[in-house]
Amino acid sequence: MEDDAPVIYGLEFQARALTSQTGETDAIRFLVGTQSLKFDNQIHIIEFDDENNIINKNVLLHQSGEIWHIAACPADKSVLTTCYNKTSDSRVVSCASVWRMPCDWETGNNESPEDSVHNPQTLELLCHLENSSHSNIACVLWEPMGDGKRLISLADNHALLWDLQESSTQAIISSSVTLEGKGQLKFTSGKWSPHHNCSQFATANDTSIRGWDLRTMSQIYCIESAHGQLVRDLDFNPNRQYYLASCGDDCKVKFWDVRNVQEPVKTLEEHSHWVWSVRYNHSHDQLVLTASSDSRLILSNMVSISSEPFGHLVDEEELSEGEENHQEDKGKEPLKDSVVSTYEEHEDSVYAAEWSSADPWLFASLSYDGRLVINRVPRALKYHILL
């Protein structure tokens, strides 16, 4: 099989929740949560065997309801959170819980991986992120660096900071902030920044994006009409502390410098329907993935606003001072941004895209029909970036 060919895996269920197994940096693993109303829901652990170009899967039971969001603990690869629907008093509420995979899930009690599908083990519940007053949890964010004991949940118009205690079997709210204003305010998504000692996070509600300081639980910036319609997702540039990407129902992907929120630094208009997911590559921040209801996944090379606008690393101070100060870059134009590749392997809305935590050149995408596709950055571009 040629190196850049996609590898496709079909779940038997519809699905929209995907994460890479963040704490696992050796094996290439992704976790997918299913959305079934009739059957027990499942977490599929998808391991990609790079050498043989095949997928190995394990299945764990998630008996609590259809999964809308999944997040892996960066510090402990066996721990994850899910946001899921459950019916109580004949109304549907969105809940969140912290789970541990059974300690022997890799070896399993089973002779072969196929057995895990027919006779799956069950996730171990560590604790619920429960707070009676905030019923609908949209997503849970793990602290990007740290010991895996701090989480943020976004529930209705509240952001709650949790401390996990007693070996993560207890969750205590340490602080919270409430979105004030007219109408029914509701957070749709958020992201915890890896910069500033992990003291900041960003949220999306309706068409706005807000930045928050965790130490004071106060707003530090607000991009009022960031998109023409609902903002669906956010991501921070891993190498440039003030840069944030957003996407939404106006089919656009925008890149912001949060020090000046009047205008986006750059806008991409490559999708023809809602954009559900935007993800910076963890190592090479010019590589950006976007996933959309147009059934397409797009890999863009946003080199002009990356940490390597001239093809080599330029530090934040130099970038802020403007290009006139680069002696060696004088007369050199920043490299041009481009769409690297448009991936058409999906036939349904692509709700999620994630980079691998173990291999910076590999990524997965998930469409609602339960199709997971694993792709690689084209070799020519990989070597162009490396050499």
UniProtKB/TrEMBL annotation:
According to its UniProt entry, one GO biological process term is: regulation of transport
The alphabetical list of record keywords is: Repeat, WD repeat
Q: Which InterPro entries match?
A: Beta-prop_EIPR1-like (IPR059104), EIPR1 (IPR040323), WD40/YVTN_repeat-like_dom_sf (IPR015943), WD40_repeat_CS (IPR019775), WD40_repeat_dom_sf (IPR036322), WD40_rpt (IPR001680)
Q: Does the keyword Repeat apply?
A: yes
Could you tell me which Gene3D superfamilies the record lists for this protein? YVTN repeat-like/Quinoprotein amine dehydrogenase (2.130.10.10)
EIPR1-like beta-propeller domain residues: 7-299
Similarity-based family: Belongs to the WD repeat EIPR1 family.
Q: What is this protein called?
A: EIPR1-like beta-propeller domain-containing protein
Q: Which organism is it from?
A: Takifugu bimaculatus
